[in-house]
């Protein structure tokens, strides 16, 4: 009986928190319904159509690592844009938390408020067990397809990492 209970608990745990196979390079880029920091619909397909797009997932707005990552991308936003790279951040935070984060750090790119986890699910981004927030992962989308996957995205130096990956796509 104890073994059955442990097995059921393990199945529930992994069913809720992960082990989804990551998206592979060449897979169609997901275009789930999304809401930005202003509570407005965000059309990912329209953003992808503008050029190479970084979709980066971070655990929680306004926390040390996530702030370093966002500020690295903010500080390099002009050069990323000059290289034709769009930037979109995603976390399970609320619209209000995303708006506050964007304003506090003057982030010039949209932040998806993925409170229900549908965007993370579409990108096969696992949740951190127990706390249920997204893992830090990054994807580059080119021509509507996943062109680069980073399952261990950096916090500091995130922009350099993205720039190098995007340069390798050309």
Question: What are the defining features of this structure?
Answer:
single chain, 170 residues, alpha/beta, Glutaredoxin, two-stranded antiparallel ribbon, 7 helices, 7 strands
CATH level 3 topology:
Glutaredoxin
The domain tally reads 1
CATH superfamily: Glutaredoxin
Indicate the structural class: alpha/beta
Gyration radius over CA = 16 Å
Largest sheet: 5 strands, mixed
Percent strand: 15-25%
Number of helices: 7
Number of strands: 7
Q: Poorly predicted ranges (pLDDT <50, ≥5 residues)?
A: 3-17
Shape: globular
CATH architecture: 3-Layer(aba) Sandwich
Q: Order of strands across the biggest sheet?
A: 3-2-1-6-7
Calculate the mean pLDDT score and round it: 89
Oligomerization state: single chain
Helical percent range?
25-40%
SSE arrangement, N to C = HHEHHEHEHEEEEH
Q: What is the end-to-end distance?
A: 57 Å
Highest-level CATH class: Alpha Beta
């Amino acid at each position: 009986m104890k073994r059955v209970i442990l097995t059921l608990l393990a199945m529930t745990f992994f069913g809720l928190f992960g082990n989804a196979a990551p998206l592979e390079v060449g897979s169609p880029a997901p275009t789930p319904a999304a809401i930005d920091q202003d509570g407005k619909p965000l059309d990912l397909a329209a953003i992808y159509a503008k050029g190479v797009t970084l979709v980066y997932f971070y655990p929680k707005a306004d926390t040390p690592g996530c702030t370093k990552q966002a500020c690295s991308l903010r500080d390099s936003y002009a050069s990323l844009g000059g290289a034709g790279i769009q930037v979109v951040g995603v976390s399970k935070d609320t619209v209000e938390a995303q708006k506050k984060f964007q304003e506090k750090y003057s982030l010039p790119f949209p932040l998806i408020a993925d409170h229900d986890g549908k965007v993370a699910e579409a990108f096969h981004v696992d949740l951190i067990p127990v706390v249920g927030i997204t893992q830090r992962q990054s994807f580059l989308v080119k021509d509507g397809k996943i062109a680069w996957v980073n399952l261990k995205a950096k916090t500091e130096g995130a922009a350099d990492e993205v720039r190098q990956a995007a340069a390798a796509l050309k």
